Amino acid sequence: MSWTRKLLRVNLTAGTVTEEALNMNWANDYLGQRGLATRYLVEEMDPAADALSPENKLIMATGPLTGTSASTGGRYSVICKSPLTNAIACSNSGGFFGAELKFAGWDMVIFEGKAASPMYLSIENDKATLLPANDLWGKSVWEADKIMRTKHQDPQARIACVGRSAEEGCLYAAVVNDLHRAAGRSGVGTVMASKNLKAVIVRGTLGLGGIHDPKAFAETTKAGKAVLAENAVTGQGLPAYGTQVLMNVINEVGALPTRNMREVQFEGAANVSAEAMAEPRKSDGKPNLTTNGACYSCTIACGRISTVDRTHFSVKDKPEYWINSGGLEYEAAWALGPDTGVDDIDALTYVNFLCNEDGLDPISFGSTVAAAMELFETGAISTAQTDGVELKFGSAEALCWAAEVTAKGEGFGKDLGLGSKRLCEKYGQPQFSMTVKGQEFPAYDPRGIQGIGLAYATSNRGACHLRGYTIASEILGIPEKTDPLESAGKAGLVKAFQDATAAVDSAGLCVFTTFAWGMDDIAPQVDAACEGNWSTEKMMEVGERIWNLEREFNAKAGITGADDTLPDRLLSLPANVGPAAGKVNELDKMLPEYYSARGWNADGSVSAETHQKFGLPG
Which residues 6+ apart lie within 8 Å of 209 measured at CB? Predict the structure, then answer.
């Protein structure tokens, strides 16, 4: 019973904190974290409710392997309805917060209602207390973290917090834990702030007991770690280069979205790549990359710790940023770099620091800036809106300014905080928004990688690579190579990746393990940790059940098959260069096959037969 079998319910309106037993029947069907929390959300709120109303619920959830010795067993998720997309939001984070929550004895925390004034939750094992946060409100994540540590005098406590961007209503604000790890996408931090909840600080000393079969668990996790260590991606590439190893790779295959996805290759990619991060600077002989870092119980250690050149214009008068902190990951580096046309690695690192400090999703932020740059280029906005700043593609100065004003919600930063869909609609050019269901694209162009286009279009949380990472197969050849320029057969591939990822997320593991692990490696670890027969087949069934449950939540929120689409730019404007030159995404060929593979109706709705097959509620 790797679950603690307890959840904490926090009614912010009433100011009460109560303990409840975990619904183990639901745990058997949905496992934990993403799946189980979504089951609670479906049960307890109306999907049609306003995402920023007190009726929305915010759930911080662990999986049964969170806090264990399984490699990467440190994950937790934040689940709610998204203010950015109005769809289901589940944002996953690493670091140490999730494990600490488990060590305190809790599988999840459900926040409901809205506090009358700013509050934060303190958890010390079975003691949980709501405390005033007036002195924290208006502070950045980093500032609030310092204040709370001074108050609680426990260096081993773990903190999850929102920054000023969330307080100011930025629709893609994150929940940041451990200073530079984040539940980053879909505006989960915005929902947290809308409840007047600033932070959660947790200290757990109970440890984790109750592993169903300790001997088998030790054996299976040891074997799993050996597989990770021997794999070229998880044992070599990610530890050495992090996810940034992909920058030059994706550029070479002609699928690196550039200048708001108008182009598919970036001439400055090498300047903001993993290799560039490791190069000594001319100013001080030190590289951008200081070291790599790992989350709790992780044997991959893909995290980046970096510094900004102290002579760079962005920080030369700001010694508070002359620090080692969370460095560029691939998605952030792409959104802040190629998508805006900026190839200044120090500018990108500084902006990434700001995103960590004030809880901005760097993917949505960078993509929104790119859309704003196209609006500026075409005259839809001018220096009258941007306080005189020339918001042009390739301007590192403009990018840094945009991050500063968005983090604080000042001036044009308020518009940037709307996300690209609402920004472009406001200025009469909706076609410039590169989004699905209102969420900005990640770093892979669907014209050069066909399957990821289908994954984006059908993702339950809007455009997302982590809901079905077909890049593993289409580019890296994992578990087998498929042609990225070919659309045939991609429906089955996307479905398999989506279902597997839902199961991995719900277990409490990192999806990066799947570069080396198949479900045959993961299921034995879950089976040894948890009661019940957790076979490979059951894990995949759980993943598929979760996917359908999320789909039904979205349907009740007003999202239909008509929303399973891509921007017209990707469907009608062919790639301009590279291997995919002349190609558009062939979504129209893939989507009907995908619906059929899912057992859905032709309009994309979940059929009565599929609903019954998985025993979905309602």
Answer: none
CA–CA distances in Å: residue 477 to residues 474, 482, 484, 508, 539: 6, 7, 10, 25, 23
| Pairing between β-strand 127-132 and β-strand 119-124 as defined by DSSP bridges | antiparallel
d(CA 237, CA 490): 26
Domain ranges of the chain: 6-203, 243-433, 440-613
Cα(136)–Cα(119) distance, rounded to whole angstroms? 9
Helix 587-598 vs helix 490-507: crossing angle, to nearest 10: 60
Q: Which fold has domain 243-433?
A: 1.10.569
189/181 Cα distance (integer angstroms): 13
CATH class of 6-203: alpha beta
pLDDT, one tens digit per residue, over 403-449 is: 999 999 999 999 999 999 999 999 999 999 999 999 999 999 999 99
Would you say residue 330 has pLDDT above 60?
yes
Alpha carbon distance 350, 314 (integer Å): 7
Q: What is the DSSP letter of 287?
A: B
- The secondary element (H helix, E strand) that includes residue 158 is strand 158-161
User: SS3 of 196, please?
Assistant: coil
Distance (Å, rounded) from C-alpha 221 to C-alpha 452? 31
Mean pLDDT of 234-240: 96
Q: Label residue 1 by pLDDT band (50, 70, 90).
A: low
- Say whether domain 440-613 belongs to CATH 1.10.599.10: yes
CB atoms within 10 A of CB 229: 15
Q: What is the Cα–Cα distance from 167 to 24, expressed in whole angstroms?
A: 36
CA angle 361, 30, 527 (to 5 degrees): 110
**Residue 572 is encoded by which pair of tokens?**
């009608």
H or E stretch including 505?
Answer: helix 490-507
Q: What is the mean pLDDT of the segment spanning 285-312?
A: 97
For residue 209, name the pLDDT band (cuts at 50, 70, 90). confident
pLDDT for residue 333 is more than 70: yes
Question: Tokens 């989004």 appear where?
Answer: 435
Does the pTM of the predicted model rise above 0.90? Answer: yes
Closest CA to 467 of 486, 431, 434, 439: 439
Which residues are CB-neighbours of 464 under 8 A, at least 6 positions away?
185, 439, 442, 455, 456
530's CB contacts (< 8 A; 6+ apart) are 1, 2, 3, 64, 212
The pLDDT of residue 208 is: 84
**Helix residue spans in 255-303 (DSSP H):** 274-278
- The reply to whether 440-613 shares the fold of 243-433 is no
Planar angle of CA 501, 505, 510, nearest 5 degrees = 95
**Which tokens sit at 554?**
């979205």
Per-residue pLDDT tens over the stretch 591-605 = 999 999 999 999 999
Distance from chain centroid for Cα 160 = 15
CA distance 221 to 525: 6
For the segment 56-72, what is each residue's pLDDT rounded down to a tens digit?
999 999 999 999 999 99
- Cβ–Cβ under 8 Å, residues 507 and 32: yes
Classify residue 449 by its DSSP letter: S
